[in-house]
Every structure is written in C-alpha cells, then in structure tokens.
Design brief:
Layout: E1 5-9, H1 13-25, E2 29-33, H2 36-43, E3 53-57, H3 65-72, E4 81-85, H4 90-99, E5 103-106, H5 111-125, H6 132-135, H7 151-163, E6 170-173, H8 180-189, E7 198-202, H9 211-216, H10 233-236, E8 241-245, H11 252-264, E9 266-267, E10 276-277, E11 281-286, H12 290-296, H13 301-307, E12 310-313, H14 324-339, E13 345-346, H15 348-356, H16 362-376, E14 381-382, H17 434-448, H18 453-460, H19 464-473
Parallel strand pairs: 1-2, 1-3, 3-4, 4-5, 6-11, 6-12, 7-8, 8-11, 13-14
Antiparallel strand pairs: 9-10
Helix pairs in contact: 2-3, 7-8, 14-16, 17-18, 18-19
Amino acid sequence: MAEKKVLIVEDEATQMALLEGVVARAGYVVEKAMTGPAAVSRLLDTSADKIDVVLLDLIMPGMNGIKVLESVRPSLPSLPVVMLTAHSSINTVVEAMQAGANDFIVKPASAERIRTALEAAMETSSFVGEIAPMTDSSKSSGFSSLIGASQGMQAATLLAQKAAKTNIPVLIEGESGVGKEVFATAIHKASDRAGKPFVAVNCGAIPENLVESILFGHEKGSFTGATERRQGKFQEAHGGTLFLDEVGELPLDVQVKLLRALQEKVIDPVGGKNSIQVDIRIISATNRNLSERVAEGAFREDLFYRLNVYPIVIPPLQERATDIPALTEHFLDTISHMEGLPRRQISGPALAALGAYHWPGNIRQLQNALFRAVTLSEQDILGPNDFPHLGDHRPQGVALQPPINAPANFPGASASHTSAILPLENADGHSRPLAEMEKVIIAAALHRYDGKMAEVARRLGIGRSTLYRKVTEYGLES
C-alpha cells in the first residue's frame, strides 16, 4: 500500500515537532507548512505530489485555518482536513466544520485521537472512502447506482424504489460500509424532491456539544463566541432531503428537538425567539440496533417509531458474495475514469479470492482494496498477489491482550491462547470489579480490530465518544 502524505500546518515549532512525531509513527509521510499562505501554496501546487490529508491549526498569525480552508476548498472539495487548536469555542468549531473541516481536535490530544481522526477523515472524505461520488449521475434515476442481483440486494432495492414514491421517513439499517448513503441518495434522486438539496449529516462525527447548533442553527449572541447567525442543516435541506447517518448517536436532548421537528415541521435555532417552518424529507441510517438502544434508555422510543416508519435493511457484502464480480467491474471502470489510470482487468483466481474473503468493511473495503491494487500494480491484469491483505484470515478467537500495568496472571497474557476466558472472580473468590473487566474487554477489542476506534465502538455496542473517554480513563492509549 502506498504511503499516505499528511500536510501538517502549525506555526509553533514545538507543536510541529510533536505532531510530526505522532504522524510519522502512524506510518504517514509528513510534509510541513509553518504559515497559512505556505499551506495554500503547497496544496494548490498541481505539480507537487498529492496530499492525502491535512492536519491544520486553527489559530495562526496572518492567515488562520479557516482562511486556509476557504482558499483551497473550491479547488479541492474532497480534501480531508482535520482542524487542531488549543483555543476552542462552540462558534469556532461550527465555523470550522461549515468551512469544510472533517474533524476538530482540541490540543493537547492523544496520539490515538490524532491517528483515528486522520484515518476517519480519509475514509469519509476521500475517493477511496466514498461511494456516492463514484456513482453520481445527474441523468440517472438514482437506482442505477445500486449494483447487485443477489436476493438480499434486490429486496432492499425494491423497498427503496417504493420509498421514493412517498415522503414518509425511511430508516436504513446495515453494517458500516454497505452503502447506506448511496441508497439514501438514490431514493432522493428518484423522488419528487429530486433537484432540491440533499444534505447528509454524520451524527456520530459531530462533537456532542455542537450537535444542536449544527442541526438547527443558532442566532447571533446565543452563546459566548456566537458572533453571527448561522443556518443549520435542517434549513439547508429545506425543500429537499435530510440524511441523518448514525442517527443512534444523537444525544437525548437533541432527540427531543428532532422529534418536534418531525411532528410539527418546525425547528428552534439555539437562542432563537421564533420557530422556523421547514419542509424536508427525513432519511436516517444506523449500524446500531435501535431497538436495543431504546431498551437501554439511550434512544427515545417515540422518536424510534417516528423514524422507523419504513425500514430498509441492506445485507452485508459477505451475504451477497454473488454481487462481488459486478461490483468489481463497476469499481474498476470508475477508478480508471476518475483517476485517469489504465483500465485494469482481473484474473479468475483474483476474483475468486475477492469472493471468498469475508469483507468486514463491506463495499467500502472492497472499493479500497481495488483502488490500492489498481494504483500499485504494474500489470494489466490484477492477480491474487495484488491483494495481499486478503490472505490475512484471522482466527475467530483472539487472545485477550493485557492492559497497561496488568498483573502477570492476567487472562490472555499467554500468546498460546487463541480465545482466553475472562474469569468473573478474583483469586480470592470475590467478584471482579466491573470497571476492571470493562478495561480488559476494551483492551482486547482494541487489539482485535487494530485500534480502529469506529469498528471497536460498533462491535462493543457503544458510542465513539464513550469509547474515547474510556480509553483515556483506563490509560489504554498507545
């Protein structure tokens, strides 16, 4: 896999050195810019190597991070950018995200937080992490982008086509990477709202204290630092469709306002005196079991019933392996067209390897695998050797890895174990503290999923913000 380039934009030499060390140890190639103009010049230099993601300081003399973003976004609309600052406020975070930042980190941040933010930004904004830009076509009804003849895929597509003829709320369920936003886009394009705004919001990626402002907007002076009025996503989507991805991550207080917006078709901006009428169609998506979230008290039951009027379940890729050849051909065509690369063919053995793999990351992972193979291969026909990671079939059981400062007799410390047993009692026969067991489980999951926080959170059934807090609390940062 080609090494990814990270441009670090930071005016303080000490912070630059610290960030460079973290990013380099994460396996990235580092480039540096000490000023805003230098960053803009580097990013807009078409003769230089491509920058894959930017780590951008917000507060810099002369040209700050917001100005840098505003300068490069017209030319680089999909460039992943992670904003970094020691001086945060709600207003500046909202401004940064509306200017096009993918994530916002408050210094000092752990190495794990920085690595995860860089990885997530590339997955959600770059070509290799987005399916929708690859299949977008203004002349398409939308459903031509849904590829697959398997029974599960055909059933989901039929439901989506029927949903497009109505304005009722749709809830799309499925694992990460199955293409939930592609389905939402297809429904919008085939509906009577086609041509009106389609606004997508990843509820799980918004800092919890900013969700209400970003969704519903805020008025000037409504909180410290709110120097101007800002429109929320609901108003941006007026007349069209609002897609709420990872809707299960919304805080309970915001769920109340969302329920009112659905019931009464009005929103209340933060600090606003008057309600605003909105005309939108809601499509939501989740990779969590919302029924379980309701039972846990983490999701409002009345909101669940409002969103779950018309459920569509998208099967994981491993359950629709017969669709892999068609998806492969589609992605090979699209990669060639979008990247200006020769159109590669794929050999029978390589296609068989793709069909036999379990694809935990679903269609997004298949897309990424093909992109890497096409860009790295020097052959016209892709073979099994162009997909070396497919040979990494891990055992279903994984040894529990001891957390930091764990005792020598920690279960799973022996490398010979493939599936350790976590005892419920201490050596003295008394029950082990719940926090101690939770620490062990999180440590094991971090090891099992290579520190990929989004995947760990999904597998453990907790929110990412909760996972970050517990990793810090238990001292599990690497």
